[in-house]
């Protein structure tokens, strides 16, 4: 039996929680506040067996219809700050592009696992790497808007691989009244998993329901997915979405294993 299937269902692990459009776990005391703006979500299906070795101990690939996904997400981080805020006006606002996978832990909590997080501010990169061991990387980045087309560009500076880059553009379309089950699965994520100092952690987050739009891929020249240790998708993404953004709060991490 593949490792990513071992122990699922009724073999000792809790079944995954339901995919919900809004957070169901209360967050009483935030440790981080921020706002995510102008997000573009690009997703490709990938074999769960390929990503299973890349996930932290105590987690396995989260699947829908037998497939899991790799996401390339570009956006603007705004007003990152500690506790209830206020956010930092300069150091807390920057462009970010991440490559992420989808995970579920032994308690059934669905989350994301970041393979890379390119950001254009060095200080948040250093703090995130030191505190939660998140794979943040310092990059030259730009987010440009021309009418209904947004273009996200990034070229890595440190720590490497230096020069790893991405450039993609999306055209924003109509608002989505009711996302499909797959669109909920890819966007309604109420936490992240990370491996830090010998432990796997779950860091919860809450935010309002996503305002989502259909989007059209205009351009894609990406090297970040491959640089993150994943196969080159080699095809157009199966899902392209846009959101104007949401305010977000993160809570204290809980130990998974």
Automatic annotation (TrEMBL):
<dbReference type="InterPro" id="IPR018644">
    <property type="entry name" value="DUF2071"/>
</dbReference>
<dbReference type="InterPro" id="IPR023375">
    <property type="entry name" value="ADC_dom_sf"/>
</dbReference>
<protein>
    <recommendedName>
        <fullName>DUF2071 domain-containing protein</fullName>
    </recommendedName>
</protein>
<dbReference type="Pfam" id="PF09844">
    <property type="entry name" value="DUF2071"/>
</dbReference>
């Amino acid at each position: 039996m593949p490792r990513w299937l071992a122990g699922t269902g009724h073999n000792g692990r809790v079944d995954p929680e339901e995919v919900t459009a809004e957070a169901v776990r209360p967050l009483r005391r935030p440790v981080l506040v921020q706002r995510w703006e102008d997000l573009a979500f690009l997703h490709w299906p990938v074999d769960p067996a390929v990503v299973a070795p890349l996930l932290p101990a105590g987690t396995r690939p989260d699947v829908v219809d037998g497939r899991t996904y790799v996401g390339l997400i570009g956006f603007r981080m705004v007003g990152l700050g500690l506790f209830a805020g206020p956010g930092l006006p300069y150091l807390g606002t920057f462009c970010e592009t991440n490559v992420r996978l989808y995970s579920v832990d032994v308690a059934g909590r669905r989350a994301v696992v970041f393979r890379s997080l390119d950001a254009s501010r060095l200080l948040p990169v250093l703090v995130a790497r030191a505190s939660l061991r998140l794979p943040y990387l310092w990059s030259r980045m730009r987010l440009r808007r021309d009418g209904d087309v947004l273009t996200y560009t990034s070229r890595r500076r440190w720590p490497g691989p230096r020069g790893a880059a991405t450039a993609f553009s999306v055209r924003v379309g109509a608002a989505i009244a009711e996302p499909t089950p797959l669109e909920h699965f890819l966007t309604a994520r109420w936490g992240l998993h990370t491996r830090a100092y010998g432990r796997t952690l779950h860091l919860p987050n809450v935010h309002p329901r996503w305002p989502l739009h259909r989007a059209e891929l205009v351009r894609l020249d990406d090297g970040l997915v491959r640089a993150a240790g994943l196969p080159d998708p080699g095809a157009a993404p199966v899902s392209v979405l846009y959101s104007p953004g949401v305010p977000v709060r993160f809570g204290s991490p809980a130990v998974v294993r």
